[in-house]
Amino acid sequence: MDFSSKLLENAVNEMSQLPGIGKRTALRLVLHLLKQPAQQTENLATAIQQMRELVNFCSNCHNISDTALCEICASQNRNAKIVCVVEDIRDVMAIEATSQYRGHYHVLGGKISPMDGIGPHDLTINSLIQKIEEGKIEELIFALSSTMEGDTTNFYIFKQIEGFNIITTTIARGISVGDELEYADEVTLGRSIVNRIPFENSLKNS
Amino acid sequence: MDFSSKLLENAVNEMSQLPGIGKRTALRLVLHLLKQPAQQTENLATAIQQMRELVNFCSNCHNISDTALCEICASQNRNAKIVCVVEDIRDVMAIEATSQYRGHYHVLGGKISPMDGIGPHDLTINSLIQKIEEGKIEELIFALSSTMEGDTTNFYIFKQIEGFNIITTTIARGISVGDELEYADEVTLGRSIVNRIPFENSLKNS
């Protein structure tokens, strides 16, 4: 693309570094900012700068938090002995939105992915193992996405903690509530039959 | 959404002000910035700030430009008597990419759209009329999108310059080169038959 302004070109190039945003979309966004009051651009720039510079991670669960210990880890009403292993803050938000979980989290910060150059030491696995070694955890719930990377990460952690006497579980995979069986994929439907649960249990949440 | 960090929430809120970017996409973008080196966020923030603060508009055609007069208006090789009326810089870039046009542009900065509160005085129509009054223009090419707003804007300008002795044209609407007739919409196909051109003319660009 041939821009008539270096400033514009620079802004478009930086904006198009974001994932899923190509040059055309970036240009649309930048031209939108130009049409809006200058204050909006100022606010956006300041917000992302401050976020990047001042952001904090909870010293216990590694979730994003403005305080040294996040609200969940600091809460007296949550069971610290149950820990749910998730990839990032979006998964914490999703599980929190269900109001069904009263334990702690452990945010890995990603999944083991050799293709992207992410190994176990780029994640917060060591600090999880340490918590387990200190006997702080009774149950570990794996809640990573069921991709190859997610499964690899689950298995890596599982192998590391084999010697310890803790319960390891994984969230149930199955047909979504409200979905028609005929449209479900075979793997999911297959798993939901193999891992069927006593009918009484299904009445608990309904 | 329930964020555990005010800084994060603020960044997501500002990011989601951009058109076509919802809260979820904004969160994805912001988390991406967090995973990248801090320099990337700094570069993005600086680029959009500088662009918004220092951006200049060509005093003649109102296109975005780093100099007082944009490259096109300053060029000796372009015909200043032919002026193509477009909405914004993206249209200039699209027409320039064809290498088929050697005249000047006039960037309106939008289209007349009462629904969005945009009237003739929010656009650069007055400066266009002034150029016409000064006898600087021989041909005016309307190249706005063929929406209701585009047609309204064309017609408004057309009415304003009725008294002047200039040629007004509009870019040809028709079936795209390479398209099958059977899949073309009726309006376009209809127009392309009504506005048919001598066969010899069609050989010029092929």
From TrEMBL, chains A, B:
Keywords carried by this UniProt record: DNA damage, DNA recombination, DNA repair, Metal-binding, Zinc, Zinc-finger
Superkingdom per UniProt: Bacteria
Residue ranges of domain Toprim in the record: 81-176
Listed GO MF terms: DNA binding; zinc ion binding
Gene Ontology BP terms: DNA recombination; DNA repair
Signal peptide (UniProt feature, chain positions): none
A Pfam match: RecR_ZnF
Entry coiled-coil feature ranges: none
Zinc fingers classed as C4-type: ranges: 58-73
Similarity comment text for this entry: Belongs to the RecR family.
NCBIfam families linked: recR
Function according to Swiss-Prot or TrEMBL: May play a role in DNA repair. It seems to be involved in an RecBC-independent recombinational process of DNA repair. It may act with RecF and RecO.
PANTHER family assigned to the protein according to its UniProt record, in alphabetical order: RECOMBINATION PROTEIN RECR
Protein name per its UniProtKB record: Recombination protein RecR
Organism: Patiriisocius marinus
Gene: recR
